[in-house]
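Fill-in record for Peptide chain release factor 3.
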Amino acid sequence: MSNRRTFAIISHPDAGKTTLTEKLLLQGGAIHLAGEVKARGAARRARSDWMKIEQQRGISVTSSVMTFEKDGITFNLLDTPGHEDFSEDTYRTLTAVDSAIMVIDAAKGIEPQTRKLFEVCRLRSVPIITFVNKVDREGRSIFETLDEVADALALDVSPQSAPLGMGGLFTGVLDFASGTVARPEGESREYRGKRDAPGDLPEDLAEEIELTRIGYPEFDLEAYRNGDLTPVFFGSALKNFGVEELIAAIARWAPPPRPQPAGEDQITPDRDEVTGFIFKVQANMDPNHRDRIAFMRQVSGTFKRGMKLTPSGLGKPIAIHSPILFMAQDRELADTAQAGDIIGIPNHGTLRVGDTLSEKNQIRFTGLPNFAPEILRRVVLRDPTKTKQLRKALDDLSEEGVIQVFYPEIGGQWIVGVVGQLQLDVLVSRLEAEYKVEAVLEASPFATARWLAGDAKAMDEFESFNRANLARDRDGDLVFMAKSVWDVNYQQERNPDLTFSATKER
């Protein structure tokens, strides 16, 4: 397990995350054809974006897993949605990693979604390596970018490289460790392996490089692994600058599998028992087979194909005969897996996000919440005879975490809840493409939802007076559907014996 590196890439949309993912896979030998996300033809699309809506829009909306090996290290790369509307999926993915790469656009600096994702990493003390992308284009000064990361994120920054000029003046990237410069070649101005000494630099550029080297803290492994310091690399994913150095840094510095929280306990990777948790479920990755894959982050033990594990949501053991490792979009059967690995478990609705899997069924991993939806819509079928298919589709998609579904106590129209508008677009697209169900989404009288908890008497009383505002989630738990946040606060004051929670621990 000490040679496992399980990490995610986080960024604002359009910072170049998918291109960087592709180039890391290319360097690791996991793919053999690089192509821009928006290039035409399925073979040239980014390998981690396989849903139709992603291919149309050129964005990542699901989190996918890619494993590759290089120089004796197994890298498990978890791609995350860059779009803020998929923050729940990203949050859950970040519970399954041990470190992250933060991609920043050299011209734009830290953007809102980058900051949000960084805060999630900080909550879990996830160490971060920063990659300042697109330095071959016009951008801000390197000091401006470094100082913004330090000030806005309250992190020590330790630059490990520097661009020699930007945009039209770009002549390469100087790597501080080796003292060599990666140079652009050919008409495309890509890095193809040519390195040489920096030579005599113009005085102002030499001064800038010297200030970059001495004006910031030296790299400190302990501070980085505690989440207090970030090493910063400059480069261009599209033109291959900085990608080699990034892989080397992850191999050298990123932590091997870390302990995971289970209530008051921490489950360490050297525990003999096989344990893990489901952080994602993805249906129809291969539409020809109507498959359904649960992604398990293995926390401890040595997993062997065919062994029996007990899911916390089921209570009885299941044999895992066909566990999958993901090599970009390709799959292979996993005979064994170690702590830190991500394995796909084919199943038909028995495994859900948040489930713990273990040999003895004595622990529960914590920290994978549901969040209160910020948009609620009624689902109306165009063809009323397809009610059964709609129910199946909504159950599947809520199991994946794409949406939440609420069944009102009064009235027949089901309500879906999401964090962002784009999730609704994905819902309608997938209903049609995968389930052959045409539906429209109508305005709902409710603006938000809260999970209810309290003693039985208080719950019964509340239920009898507010049945028109109550629904059940897909677990059967009672949910208060509120017309506004003011409504939530009013009911909270009137019912002090109940809690109205904006999150639900899975």
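KEY FINDING: Confidence is low (pLDDT under 50) at residues 34-50, 57-63.
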